[in-house]
Design goal:
Elements: E1 4-8, H1 14-25, E2 29-33, E3 43-48, E4 55-60, E5 65-67, E6 71-76, H2 82-85, H3 91-109, E7 116-118, H4 121-127, H5 130-139, E8 147-150, H6 153-163, E9 166-169, E10 188-190, E11 204-208, E12 214-221, E13 224-231, E14 248-251, H7 256-268, E15 273-280, E16 290-296, H8 307-318
Parallel strand pairs: 1-2, 1-6, 6-7
Antiparallel strand pairs: 3-4, 4-5, 8-11, 9-10, 9-11, 12-13, 12-15, 13-14, 15-16
C-alpha cells in the first residue's frame, strides 16, 4: 500500500518544515531526503519491472528508510544542488559525479509513476522560463506588460524610447558568489543612456513600467487560491528589496475570471502549485486592473500571514484529501 509522503528538499528549508509539521499531526508517514546527501548520508537501490515499467527499491538515510513502491506523493521543494556534494573533487570528476547522480538518483525520484508530484521537477523546469510564462499568460487572457528580450543595444534603446519608463529584471536569481554569500539584482528602472556594448554579452529582459497602485501575491495549491495584497512602506518598485517585516499584507478576493485563469495556467504546465505575482493598476475587484508579472512554480510562501492555511492545503493535496472543485480565496 502506498502510504508515505516523500519530501525532497534541503535540510534548512523552513517552508517544507511547515508542511511536514501538518503531515505529522495528521498521522501521515513522512520521509525527508536531500538527494545531494548521496553517499554516507543517502543510499538507494532501484529495480525496474520489465513488464509494468515501475520502479521498486528503497531510499535509506541514517535515520529513515522507505520503499519506493510505498511512496504515494512527492513534495519536491528545493534540494541542494548535486554539485555541492562533489565540490571537493577535481573539475572533471565533479562534473561527472554530478551528472551521474542527477540522471541516476534524480531520474528515479522523477519517475515514480503512481505518485503525485507537487510539483514534478520536469514541470517546474518547463514552467520556469519567463518567455514561456508570458506566452501562456497572454494566451489565457491575462494582461501582460510590453516586453522585449534582447542583447542588442539599438533594439533596447528603441524599446525604451517608445515605451518608457522601462524596467529591467533578471530571468534567474543571482548565483552565490565565490565566497558563498548571497545577493540579488532587484527589478529597476533603466534609461536608454545607460545602454552600452556590455549589453550584448547576454540576454536582457526589459518591460514597460506599470503605473501600479499595489502588488498581489497569489499562492495556488491544488484547487485553493490565497491572495494577498502587499504594500511596501516607501512604494518601492520591487517590494522584495526592503525589510520584509515592514511590509503590510491585506487579504483580497480574486475576481472569478482571474481565479479560473490561474487554474488553467497551472494545468497548462501540469503543475499543482504556483506563486503568482500581479501588479494592480486600480481596484482589486476589477480584473482589468490585474497585470501579470510572473509565476514561480516553486515559490516561497512561508512568510505570508496565511501560511498555516497554505500548509494545510499542501497536506490535503499530498494526502489526496483535496475536495475537487473547491475554491478558497482570501
Amino acid at each position: 500500500m502506498r502510504s508515505t509522503v516523500l519530501v525532497v528538499t534541503s535540510l534548512e528549508d523552513v517552508t517544507s518544515d511547515q508542511v511536514i509539521d501538518v503531515l505529522n499531526k495528521r498521522g501521515s508517514s513522512v520521509v525527508r531526503v536531500d538527494p545531494a546527501d548521496i553517499g554516507r548520508g543517502l543510499s538507494f537501490e532501484a529495480h525496474i519491472d520489465a513488464a509494468s515499467g515501475e520502479w521498486s527499491g528503497r531510499l535509506c538515510t541514517p535515520t529513515r528508510s522507505v520503499r519506493l513502491e510505498e511512496i504515494r506523493a512527492v513534495y519536491y521543494r528545493r534540494p541542494t544542488p548535486y554539485a555541492n556534494r562533489f565540490a571537493h573533487l577535481s573539475k572533471q570528476q565533479q562534473a561527472f559525479a554530478t551528472a551521474e547522480a542527477k540522471h541516476g538518483l534524480g531520474g528515479v525520484l522523477a519517475n515514480l509513476p503512481t505518485a503525485r508530484y507537487v510539483n514534478h521537477p520536469q514541470a517546474v523546469t518547463a514552467a520556469d522560463f519567463k518567455p514561456t510564462q508570458l506566452r501562456i499568460a497572454a494566451q489565457l487572457g491575462f494582461a501582460i506588460p510590453r516586453t522585449l528580450i534582447t542583447n542588442e543595444v539599438q533594439a533596447a534603446g528603441e524599446f525604451a524610447r517608445e515605451h518608457g519608463p522601462v524596467i529591467y529584471k533578471t530571468f534567474r536569481g543571482l548565483p552565490l558568489s565565490e565566497d558563498g554569500t548571497t545577493g540579488a539584482i532587484w527589478t529597476q528602472r533603466v534609461a536608454p543612456s545607460s545602454f552600452d556594448s556590455s549589453l550584448s554579452v547576454t540576454a536582457h529582459l526589459f518591460q514597460k513600467e506599470i503605473p501600479k497602485s499595489g502588488d498581489v501575491r497569489v499562492t495556488v495549491v491544488g484547487r485553493r487560491a490565497f491572495a494577498t495584497r502587499i504594500t511596501a512602506p516607501h512604494d518601492e518598485l520591487d517590494w522584495r528589496r526592503g525589510h520584509w517585516d515592514e511590509l503590510t499584507h491585506v487579504a483580497v478576493r480574486l475576481p472569478p475570471s482571474i481565479e479560473t485563469a490561474l487554474f488553467h495556467y497551472l494545468a497548462a504546465f501540469d503543475l499543482v502549485f504556483g506563486c503568482f505575482d500581479f501588479a494592480l493598476t486600480g481596484p482589486a475587484d476589477d480584473p482589468g486592473h490585474w497585470i501579470w508579472i510572473e509565476c514561480n512554480p516553486n515559490g516561497q510562501w512561508g512568510w505570508l500571514p496565511e501560511a498555516t492555511d497554505i500548509a494545510e492545503a499542501f497536506a490535503d493535496v499530498l494526502m489526496e484529501k483535496e475536495t475537487g472543485g473547491e475554491h478558497v480565496t482570501r
